[in-house]
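Intended use. Records like the one below are meant for learning the mapping from a protein sequence to its folded structure. Do not use them to infer anything beyond what is encoded.
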Amino acid sequence: MITLERILSGLLEALSMAFGMTWEILWALILGFALSGLVQAVVTKSEMTRLLPDDSPRSIGVACGLGAASSSCSYAAVALARSIFRKGANFTAAMVFEFASTNLVIELGIIMAIMLGWQFTLGEFVGGTLMIVLLWALFRSFLTPRLVQAAKRQAERGLVGSMEGHAEMDMSVQEEGTIIQRATSPAGFTSISHYFVMDWASIWKDIVVGLLLAGALAAWVPYSFWQSFFLTDQPGLSTVWGVVVGPLVAVLSFVCSIGNVPLAAVLWNGGMSFGGVMAFIFADLIVLPILNIYRKYYGGRVSLFLFATFYAAMASAGLIVDLVFEALGLVPAHRNAKVVEASIQLNYTTVLNVIFLILAAVLVWRFMKTGGPQMLKMMGESADHSDHMGHERHQHNSH
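Structure written out for the chain above:
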């Protein structure tokens, strides 16, 4: 019989799991976003369109580099990809930029190493790069000029999706000098603080939802269910099934960006194959809310094309990484991802959390003192307005 006491006990256990995972990765989240802010501070967005004129290997490589240097927020990546496409960038290169923004970023790798292990971080960067190559090949084979023209016409309508303002704001340092000089200047300090807070503001909901959902699944769903669902008693079949179902689970989870890593930890402990977990993490760009944004941005036919090609690239990359890592002995032998109940002890995790919370406080203080709150209000405004006002205020408040 289900009683109020059992319900409350279950809720407390789920919240305890969510808090425990939060405490384990807090310092890494702050470090990752600080490093991301540093990179974005010295890489200007104004050159992106000029650097991505076609789908040549050079342009694809540049798109990967620019994506890796940008925000990890999936919604911001999708919005910025459309923006540079509207301004003249090649459609394939814009989509590659989008992939790199959510799969080749520093903060994602750090969180995966903490929660899942270094093998998953390596798999993310190897698989992310492979996924981009597969996507490029699929676009070369199946993307027709007619589809690109349809996407362009729809994009020019400028329908609002999500995080338009954040995607367009160019808060990078405009001063001359070396990367170190720009990063350590007063303007660089301001720019880093603004990117740090704006990235947190754009992604915190995904992180919270992901942690809460992971806590609920860890507390309420028995491992026997996961083991049955992921066919753990049939190793060969489970490898293929994992990469097929992994992206579909992501689609239905509604969680994207870094928020899907705690969920991935639960799925890995539950018996999902290594490649299935990788495909699940890759699939943050095809969750249902983002599929709806593709429909607004590029039209129904193009959005279906993007879903089909993205899914094929994600599942294929997950399968290849699984097979290669298994052959090389790199797949972890034990399923011990960090899905833990709340526990604060005097250890390295607590010390690092305190140190990086102080760093976060300093960056938030700088953000508040240099016009940050006004810029934060513009995150959901039209792209053109936010780009103009954001750059103007950043220059005014840099010193």
